[in-house]
Amino acid sequence: MAEGSPAPTEVxxxxxxINVPHSARIYDYWLGGKDNFAVDRAVGEAMIQAIPGMxxxxxxxxxxxxxxxxxxxxxxxxxxFLDIGxxxxxxxxxxxxxxxxxxxxxxxxxxxxxxxxxxxRALMISHPSGRSEYIxxxxxxxxxxxxxxxxxxxxDLTKPVxxxxxxxxxxxxDADDPWGTVEELRDxxxxxxxxxxxxxxxxxxxxxxxxxxxxxxxxxxxxVARTKEAVQRFFGDWEMLEPGLSPVSAxxxxxxxxxxxxxxxxxxxxxxx
Length: 273
Known about the structure:
Layout: H1 23-30, H2 38-50, H3 54-74, E1 80-84, H4 94-101, E2 106-111, H5 114-123, E3 131-136, H6 142-147, H7 149-154, E4 162-166, H8 178-187, E5 194-200, H9 206-218, H10 228-232, E6 239-240, E7 246-247, E8 265-271
Helix pairs in contact: 1-2, 2-9, 3-4
């Protein structure tokens, strides 16, 4: 670009406000994606300044999703998933991992960012024997998700479901009663269903996480880091699978982890009795 030339105008799909940061696009930036805008990159960089390992943490969340999808299919016999807070598709996606082990697996993805919808419909192609669908909805309205025709047409709620809430509950303030929201989702699922959660915490590095939260809230976002006890509440009375609520890198790792607390997230999976 020649000196003095104006910066290129960023173009977004209809319904996307490029002046307001969005968690899905910030996460995409951390993972090295290109579906983000200047406002997302600014917040993402400010959070990296607070926590230099932020990109590593985003990667550890993705690895957790892959391990959960594999284990719920192979060990729990679950062949259908509801993934809320999907984010911009990053291969391999949850349905691709699940369908590696069960080609008939079905997945419903849910997100509230229009740019996620554009990419989800283009890239989330299911195995011919299975199915993947996308719902544009907000976790703050669980009833609308559960009643959506696409969900009802794709998932059989009389059979166990894998509900995945990966790095999404942090976007709900305590005043929004995220525990009540998750309880409503849990109550709609049958016995044998499993709930997988990752959630940022200040338990491992309070100062750095506080600085990252300040960067996000200063940009108008809601971002809540919660203690282990607060995250444990999301599982209600469901039975925690081994190894229980753990640092995200330490939940059934595929290889030894030098420092499990280097990624400031709690992670766990629980089964409905």
